[in-house]
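note to self — DONT lose this again. spent like an hour looking for the file last time. sequence + predicted structure for the chain T wanted, 439 res
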Amino acid sequence: MNEVFCPPRSALYSLEPIGVGTASVESLTSFFCRLAVTHCVSSTDLLHRISETCGWAAPPKNFWKDTNLSGMGDVAERYASALSEMTSVQRLDLLTLRTWRNVIAQRSQAPAKGRWCGPCFEDDLRQGRIPYFRLAWDVGDVDICAKHGVRLMFACPHCGRTNARNNAAYVVPGWCCYCGASLGGFREAPSSATPAETWKAAQVGQLLAAQASLFSVPDRGAMIEGILKLVEQLDRGESARFARRIGLNKSSVHYWFKQGGVPTLAAHMRIASQTGVSLKELLLGAIGGTVATDRGSPSLAKLYPAYKKRASPRQHHIANIQAQMDEAGPPDVNASVREAARRLKLHPRQLYRLENEKARVIGAKWREDQRDRSEQHRLAAFRVIQAAVEDILSRGKAPNLREVQQLVPREVLGGVRGVVTMIQEAARKVADSRPATLP
């Protein structure tokens, strides 16, 4: 007798995710909302059911505002794992960005509001598909729909309310949470996307489409090795030149290479656009032998309009600097190394590097002069305090800080340290100078 295989029963309906393996893959937020609709319960009720099953604390009232189910954080992993177990649907982590957690910093920008593409919802209804939220809409560095070339919306085209996508107890993807109208269409004429915005959306789309075909989670070590290869090929191994190429501080690049840091998605976009590699190749560390930087990638100014190109480093003529230092003669003028560098239009570190001996002499003389000034000021303050102590003792009072403050100007006391000690020393000196009284 042949045995009939019967799949195990699941606690929740085995809902099929949409678009897995494509750039239009569904987000875990959308899957969760559709699952609640399938069971004819509110999102809050489904959250409580999952929490009770997994032994978690009850979710807060503003769950959707504080939680990103589709991101790279631990919350996304927990809910993807819990929903996979309760629905018997495998690999729900593909509906999140957890795949890239080792190669993209989790502090990468996330959208502040729930966004969507109106034409995508219209296409779903026109073609008889169930409307759903795309994972690409929850990527903060993407502002447009790669398929339709229009900017993502965050306000209902009918009632104008924001956060109208999934900010409600009952959420039906594709319909406004406030007025119930379709989120397809536009309130105003749609604005077209720039080539740079289209490039960013296309790069992220390739990334999301590749998630389902990966055999392992991308490794940070392979990603860093790929970036080091780009630095070697394009900038002769100089990380400072590479940082200038991608428009970031060299400390950021040093943080990646030396301190175990991970670039944000925006930083990866900068690297990909200025090196000619794709975002997918960069994150997987699949850098070829020769890199061609002219693949039609947008410039940094177009990719990030707020970017200001850093000025090229000044070329200093050592002979001219040495001549100016010689003309100044010995450092008999009281000036610090910082002031001397300012006069030569240099950074103090550059002055030490170019004229180390003379910079050290200037620094030593400046410190000596400061010590002399401090000692002279202290002696002058002590004389004033001693006179005040003599006056206080002559009036039969005990010399203390309160009495001295009434006689000595504030600028004198404020410029020295250890005023109480100086008062005590002045009192002893005055007492020693007085003749001893006969019994």
